[in-house]
């Protein structure tokens, strides 16, 4: 192995991307049937319309060669019947027009049908995924979910647009041709069928081989995309650790793989045409040699007439296309099996937190929270919360403190019912959360995370996310109350400033103020706040503390607290360690106890507060 190759493989190990690689799966009727159900809404409109248009054009294509061979040549020309010939020419012209119209409408309706099915399927999958619980997203990367909703559904597009109708058309055409050929001359028909196995071989085996190479190109491109995406997102880190050279080498490696896969695929594709032409040529040779012999024999001696020969020539020309497409269709079906299996796997996924039919709906929520001997694990090996019993009274502000991984966010997750406890109960206003409608819980709870998520759009719309039906004035009022109005007004376009997905144009403090405005607008009964640990300047810090005071007023608040100023003002502080509450009480009570909290404050918070 050359040095550069060795280098490459070392770098290839550094990053790894999981790509869904199963390209095809065995055909499965149950799964196919489940896919076909998506055609049902169109079973009285586009589907029958496309089938009728297809039948019309196929019937014309099958009739014309007989008219030319058996009628025009064998009857009209033989008997020198000019009138009949004239009628035939006009008739064939009209038939071609009808076939043309049939094709135009078939293509139009088939495309509308396919696009509608893909639209419905994507809509169905996205809305289903949106309903799934946090546990589902814990185990999967955003990229892999994206690939299923985009690529896997895209790969079904061909099946629904052309595949199904073409399959019908090809079967009808092939059966039609075979029946007609045998009716015209069983001997010549049998002779020509010798090329059938070769044709099938080319259309299935070779095509599959070629398609696999293109699939490989797709996989290499996905890797390239994933690396590019990561590379661009992590550009700042790359530059600050001076890793540009390593990254470039790794990129070259993937780029090389991509190039090689293209070369392979184009090389194999180039083989296809010559193979097709060869099998056509064999068919033609058989037709001419054996056909000529049969013509010479004459119809009275078991041979054929010239017209039959001409019809055969026409049909032979029409033979290849449906066989070739059937082979392609078979490959397409196997691919559709793999894609639909992945799609159905998501569709069969049920939310872990289920809603009961007779679930209670919170019209109003006071905000009294109780944890009664709650135990919880994200996975089987580790317990994240052990027998937690906590009471948070209406309107209280409590702080959760503790080392990283001690279970603070887990408590917050259970209050919003993103997960259900493995043992014990979480209650709000006396209702076990398992007996309450999910939406009615979450509408009354606002969660403000450390890293505020900004959606692409204007600042106005980003704040309005808290309450979609809020008026512009209500949005502005909320921003004023939390003190976000100042910085927003200073932006070139004020509230109409466009912010990108990650909100790079805003500082951490500004993003936090914006998320406060969002939460205030939602007017929740319970507020869960994961305080930002990032250091911000003193002026913003003061602003945030002030905003927080306004935000907390009249609500129950659970703060995952990092700042001593917040902790001091909390009504009750819970100190967590390895999923257990070690102690709780007010700041002065806990300081007096000189226990764990005392140690934490001394070692950690004094330092943070001093920043
Ligand atoms: N989605 C998850 N899947 C599996 N384990 C998880 C998940 N989220 C958290 N954990 C684990 O559960 C434990 C408690 O995590 P939790 O996020 O509640 O801690 P935390 O106190 O909020 O930490 P931090 O202050 O770092 O945010 C940790 O051991 C963590 O590794």
Automatic annotation (TrEMBL):
Pfam families: ABC_membrane, ABC_tran
One GO MF term: ATP binding
Membrane topology designation: Multi-pass membrane protein
SUPFAM superfamilies according to UniProt: ABC transporter transmembrane region, P-loop containing nucleoside triphosphate hydrolases
Residues passing through the membrane, by range: 45-64, 84-105, 159-182, 188-204, 275-296, 302-320
Chief place of localization: membrane
Domain of life from the UniProt record: Bacteria
Keyword Transmembrane helix: yes
Compartments where found: Cell membrane
Domain ABC transporter span(s) in chain numbering: 369-603
Alphabetized UniProt keyword annotations: ATP-binding, Membrane, Nucleotide-binding, Transmembrane, Transmembrane helix
Domain ABC transmembrane type-1: residue ranges: 49-335
Protein name, UniProt field: ABC transporter ATP-binding protein
UniProt source species: Virgibacillus tibetensis
């Amino acid at each position: 192995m050359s040095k550069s190759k060795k280098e490459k493989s070392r770098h290839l190990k550094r990053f790894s991307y999981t790509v869904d690689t199963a390209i095809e799966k065995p055909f499965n009727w149950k799964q196919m049937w489940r896919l076909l159900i998506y055609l049902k809404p169109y079973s009285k409109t586009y589907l029958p319309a496309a089938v009728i248009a297809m039948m019309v054009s196929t019937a014309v294509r099958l009739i014309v060669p007989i008219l030319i061979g058996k009628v025009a040549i064998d009857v009209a020309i033989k008997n020198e019947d000019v009138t009949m010939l004239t009628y035939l020419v006009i008739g064939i012209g009209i038939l071609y027009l009808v076939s043309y119209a049939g094709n135009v409408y078939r293509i139009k309706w088939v495309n509308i049908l396919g696009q509608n099915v893909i639209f419905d399927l994507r809509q169905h999958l996205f809305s289903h995924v949106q309903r799934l619980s946090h546990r589902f997203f814990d185990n999967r990367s955003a990229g892999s979910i994206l690939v299923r909703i985009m690529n896997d559904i895209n790969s079904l597009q061909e099946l629904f647009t052309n595949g199904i109708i073409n399959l019908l058309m090809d079967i009808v055409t092939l059966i039609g041709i075979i029946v007609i050929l045998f009716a015209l001359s069983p001997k010549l028909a049998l002779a020509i069928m010798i090329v059938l196995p070769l044709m099938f071989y080319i259309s299935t085996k070779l095509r599959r081989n070629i398609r696999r190479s293109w699939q490989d190109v797709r996989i290499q491109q996905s890797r390239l995309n994933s690396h590019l995406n990561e590379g661009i997102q992590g550009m700042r880190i790359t530059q600050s650790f001076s890793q540009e050279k390593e990254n470039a080498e790794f990129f070259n490696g993937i780029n090389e793989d991509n190039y090689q896969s293209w070369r392979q695929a184009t090389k194999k594709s180039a083989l296809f045409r010559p193979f097709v032409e060869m099998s056509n040529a064999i068919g033609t040779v058989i037709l001419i040699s054996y056909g000529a012999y049969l013509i010479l024999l004459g119809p009275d001696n078991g041979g054929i007439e010239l017209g039959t020969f001409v019809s055969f020539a026409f049909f032979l020309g029409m033979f290849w296309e449906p066989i070739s497409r059937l082979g392609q269709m078979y490959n397409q079906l196997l691919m559709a099996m793999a894609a639909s299996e992945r799609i159905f796997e998501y569709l069969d996924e049920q939310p872990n937190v289920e809603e009961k039919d007779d679930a209670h709906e919170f019209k109003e929520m006071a905000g009294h929270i109780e944890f009664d001997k709650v135990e919880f694990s994200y996975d089987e090996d580790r317990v994240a919360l052990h027998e937690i019993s906590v009471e948070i009274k209406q309107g209280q502000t409590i702080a959760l403190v503790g080392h990283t991984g001690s279970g603070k966010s887990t408590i917050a997750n259970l209050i919003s019912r993103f997960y259900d406890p493995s043992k014990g109960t979480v209650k709000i206003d006396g209702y076990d959360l398992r007996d309450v409608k999910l939406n009615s819980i979450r509408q009354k709870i606002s969660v403000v995370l450390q890293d505020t998520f900004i959606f692409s759009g204007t600042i106005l719309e980003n704040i309005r996310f808290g309450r979609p039906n809020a008026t512009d004035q209500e949005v502005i009022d909320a921003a004023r109350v939390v003190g976000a109005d100042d910085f927003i007004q200073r932006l070139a376009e004020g509230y109409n400033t466009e912010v990108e997905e990650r909100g790079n144009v805003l500082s951490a403090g500004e993003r936090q103020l914006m998320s406060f405005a969002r939460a205030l607008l939602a007017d929740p009964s319970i507020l869960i706040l994961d305080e930002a640990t990032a250091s911000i300047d003193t002026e913003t810090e003061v602003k945030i503390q002030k905003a927080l005071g306004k935000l907390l007023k009249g609500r129950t608040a659970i703060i995952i607290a990092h700042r001593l100023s917040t902790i001091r003002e909390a009504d009750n502080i819970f100190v967590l360690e390895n999923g257990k509450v070690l102690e709780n009480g007010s700041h002065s009570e806990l300081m007096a106890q000189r226990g764990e909290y005392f140690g934490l404050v001394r070692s950690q918070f004094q330092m943070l507060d001093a920043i």
